[in-house]
Amino acid sequence: MHITATIVFVALFVLIAVLGFLSARWQRGDLGHLHEWGLGGRRFGSWITWFLIGGDLYTAYTFVAVPALVFGAGALGFFALPYTVLVYPVVFSVLPRLWLIAKRHNFITAADFVAARYDSPALALVITVTGIVATMPYIALQLVGVEVVIGGLGFPTHGIVGELPLIIAFVVLAAFTYTSGLRAPASIAVVKDLLVYVTVLALIIVVPWKLGGFGKIFAAIPAEHLYLPPIHSGNLGTQSFYLTLALGSALALMLYPHATTAVLSSQGPKTLRRNWIFLPAYSFVLGLIALLGYMAYAANLSSIPALAPYFHQYGPQFAMPGLLLRYFPDYFVGIGFAAVAIGALVPAAIMSIAAANLFTRNIYRAYIRPDCDAKRETQMAKLVSLVVKFGALLFILLLPTEFAIQLQLLGGILILQTLPAIVSGIYTRWFDPRALLIAWAVALGWAIWAASLTDFQKSGYALHCFGWIIPGYIGLYALALNFLFAIFITLLLRATGRHSSADLTDAAAYQE
C-alpha cells in the first residue's frame, strides 16, 4: 500500500467533491429548469467552455488507453493525434450553427433538433436510442481508469472491500451531479486539467532524463513498433485502416450526446469558435501522452518484479501508472493518480447528464408524459442521471472489462450513423426522413454484422475492391452505405412525388 500517495489522492478527491457541491451556487439559476440543470443556463464563457469541452473529450480512459495502445500495438496508437486535429475544422463550421438553432427553439438535445427539423418522431427516437446506447459503455469505461489507479495505490480490486473505493467515488459523483447539474463538472474540469498538465509535463521531462534521452528511448523500440507496416501485394493493410480510423473517429467525436451538451452550454457561436482555435492545445498534450507508451516499452516496465503483477492484472493499461510508480516519489504518484480519477469523473458526469437529457426530452416527454411541467421534467432528468451512473457502475462491477471495451468500440461505430440526420439537417432539408431512417437501419445492421466477424474484438473490415484489399474503419464504411441509401431513397421518393418536406423549425434560424 502506498500510504503517502493514498493520502494525497484522497485529499484531492475530497477537494473536488466539495467543489462539486459548491458549484450549485455558481452562476445562480433556477435548477428546476432543464436548461439550467442540464446546460448550465447556456452561460459558460470562453475559458469554462474550453475546460469543459476538453474535460469532456479528453477523458481518463484516453489518459490510460492511448499510452496502452502505443505500448501494446505501436504506431497505430498515434491515430488519436490526426483525428483530434481533423475534428476542429469540421466542428468549427457545424456546431456554432447548431447552437444558434438550438437556442432559438430551446432545444436541449440533438434529437430535439432532428424531431423538429424533419417533423419525424420516429427518426428522433432512433437518434435518441443510438445516443444512449453509445454513451452507456463510454461511462463504464471511465471506471476502468479509476479501477487501474486504485489498484496501483495498493488496494485489492476484488471482493466488496476491493470495490468499495470505486463505489464511494461514484456515490460522490452521483450526489454532486444530482445537486449541481452541469455546473459541477464544469468547475471540476479546471482542477482536472491543471492536474493532467502538471502530471504529463513531469512525465515527459523526468522519464526521458532517467532513461538517457529520447534517442535511447526510440532506439529501444523495434522498427515494427515504430512504423506502420508497408503496403504489400495489393493489401493496404494498416495504412488504410489508420487513415479511415482517424477520419471516422474525428467525425464521430462531436456526435456523442455529451459533446453536444458541452457545446450547447456555451454562451454562443463566438465562444465556440474561440475554443476551436485553442482546443488543439489538448492535441499537443495528447501527443505527449502517446509517447508515454514508448517510454514504458523502453523502460521494460512489465518485467520489473514490483510492477509485473500489475501488468499481469491490467495489461498494457498499466503503462502510464507504471511510469509514475517507477520514477516518481509517492506524493507525486498521488497527484498523477488523482488526475486520472478526476479525469474520469468529469466526463462521466457530463455523459450521464447528456443521457438523462436525451431520455427525458425525447422519450419521457415525447411518449410518456407530454404534459409534464418544467419542474417535473428536470426531476426526471436528475433521477435518470442517477440510474445511468449506477447502471455503468454495475456494468463494470459485474461484467468483464473487455465487454465494456467491446461495446464502447461498437458505440463509436453506431453514433457515427447519426451524422446524416444531424449534420445534413443543419445545412439542408433535402433528405426525406423515411430515407434517413431506412439508411440508418441498413448501416447499423451492416456495421453490427461486420463487427461480429471478429466477435466485436476489432473495428476494422477488409473491403475487397477491384483486386485490392482495403482494410478500413467499419464506422466509416457504414457511413458511406448510410449516405448511399439515404440519397437513393430520397431521389426515389422525390421522383414519385411522395417525399416529405415538413419542417417545424424557423427558417430564419439558419440565416443568422
Keywords:
512 residues, mainly alpha
Task: Give the ordered list of helices and strands.
Answer: HHHHHHHHHHHHHHHHHHHHHHEEH
Number of helices: 23
Overall mean pLDDT score?
Answer: 85
Say how many strands there are.
2
Strand order of the largest sheet: 1-2
Low-confidence stretches: none
What characterizes the major β-sheet? 2 strands, antiparallel
Percent range for helical residues? over 70%
Radius of gyration: 23 Å
Strand content: under 5%
Shape label: globular
Structural class: mainly alpha
Describe the structure.
The protein is mainly alpha-helical and about 500 residues long. It has 23 helices and two strands. The protein has helices at about 5-20, 35, 45-55, 60-75, 80-105, 110-120, 120-150, 160-180, 185-210, 215-220, 225, 235-255, 255-265, 270-280, 280-300, 310-315, 320-325, 330-370, 375-400, 400-415, 420-425, 435-450, 475-495; strands at about 460-465, 470-475. A two-stranded antiparallel sheet has the order 1-2. The chain is globular and about 70 Å long.
Secondary structure elements and pairings:
Elements: H1 3-22, H2 34-37, H3 46-57, H4 60-73, H5 80-105, H6 110-118, H7 121-152, H8 159-180, H9 183-211, H10 214-219, H11 223-226, H12 237-253, H13 257-264, H14 269-278, H15 280-298, H16 308-314, H17 319-327, H18 330-368, H19 374-398, H20 401-415, H21 419-427, H22 433-452, E1 460-465, E2 468-473, H23 474-495
Antiparallel strand pairs: 1-2
Helix pairs in contact: 1-8, 1-9, 1-18, 3-9, 3-13, 3-14, 3-18, 4-7, 4-15, 4-18, 5-12, 5-14, 5-15, 6-7, 7-18, 7-19, 7-20, 8-18, 8-19, 9-15, 9-18, 13-18, 15-17, 18-19, 22-23
